[in-house]
Amino acid sequence: MKLCYSALSPFVRRVRITAIEHNLLDKIEIVDSDHSDMFKGINPATPLGKVPSLTLENGEVLFDSLVICEYLNSIGSGPSLFPASGPERWRVLTLHAMADGMTDAAYQRRVDSILPEGEGSPSWSARLKLSMESCLDVMEQQVESYADDLNIGTIAVSCALGYHDFRFGPEQWRNGRPKLAAWYERFAARPSIAQTAPA
Ligand SMILES: N[C@@H](CCC(=O)N[C@@H](CS)C(=O)NCC(=O)O)C(=O)O
Fold first, then answer.
1. Which option is the CATH number for 2-75: 3.90.1150.10, 3.40.109.10, 3.10.450.50, 3.40.30.10?
2. Which of 17, 86, 148, 184 has its CA at a distance of 20 to 30 angstroms from the CA of residue 193?
3. Alpha carbon of 136 to ligand 1 centroid (Å)
4. Within 6 Å (CB) of ligand 1, which residues are found?
């Protein structure tokens, strides 16, 4: 299998964590994305031009990160990261959706900040920041329910927080969110999370 990859992508990171937890790293060949022109897209393997994508042995291309993670979960040998059915499945997928939306808002803010002079939108960036902060506040309220569970929802939360540290460190999301900060410190020490941290 070929994973089209970008070292700093928080979406690719979720796939890498899933691959590590399922002992699949040695079955995956890494293909670097093409960052020569951000306006052309960085991955020709998908119509969206984004990473990650996973090309299977039969040539079929899977995307986006959630689909790839569930595929790896279905063929791997680790404990399942996707509850099979019932209320727990919807809870975990909704947690994933919140963390994914927060990550997407952070990524769009980051892109806005590197656009050529005059092409960004400060008011839309402020809207994205509000959305990120609302997600952080909800995470602080519900983090006790995450416990020490490892699933696609808690993985996505940890990647969202890691990306926040990496791109928006000075905003100090830990301030006023002590429970989330304590949970993240424990969770981020897990080998699959520590090994894939953006540097
Ligand atoms: N929903 C997608 C989001 C993927 C995404 O936004 N990837 C970014 C990298 S962090 C990308 O490829 N950006 C390049 C572009 O949009 O041209 C997923 O979960 O895989």
1. 3.40.30.10
2. 86
3. 21
4. 6, 9, 11, 41-42, 49-52, 64-65, 107
